[in-house]
Amino acid sequence: MFVQLRKITVSEGHADKVIERFSKPGIIEEQEGFVGINIMQKKQRRGEEEVIVMITWESEAHWKQWEKSDAHIAGHKANRGKPKPDYMLKMEVSIYEVKAVKKAAEKTEISE
Fold first, then answer.
1. Pseudo-torsion of CA 20, 21, 27, 33, nearest 10°?
2. Phi, psi of 53 (to 5 degrees)
3. What global pTM score does this model have?
4. pLDDT, mean over the chain
5. Phi and psi at residue 67, in whole multiples of 5°?
6. Is residue 111 a part of any domain in this protein?
7. What CATH number is attached to the domain comprising 45?
8. How far is CA 37 from the centre of its chain?
9. Per the domain annotation, does 66 fall within a domain?
C-alpha cells in the first residue's frame, strides 16, 4: 500500500471547512487502486487547527496514475491563479510506502 498525508493548518474555527471539502464525493473514488481517505482533526483547545488527510492507494503506481490523470490535472488547472483561502495557513504533503499492517485479533464467540 501507498499513503499520501496532507497536514493542513488553518486558523481557529476553520477546520470544518477543510473536513467538508475532503469529505465530499469526488472522482478520486472511481480511480483504479484507490483504497480510501481518512480525515482526522487534531484535538486541541484553542489556536490554529490541524487536519490530516490520509489518502491510501493499493500501490505507488496507482497513485502516480492518479497524479498524471486528466481528471486530476483538470482539477488543478481549474484552481490555478485562484488565491488560497485566507484561513489556510500551511499545508505539508508527505508520501509513505506501507511496510506493515497490524489488525485486531479475531474474537471467538463463547457459546452458552
1. -80
2. -115, 115
3. 0.83
4. 92
5. -60, -35
6. no
7. 3.30.70.100
8. 5
9. yes
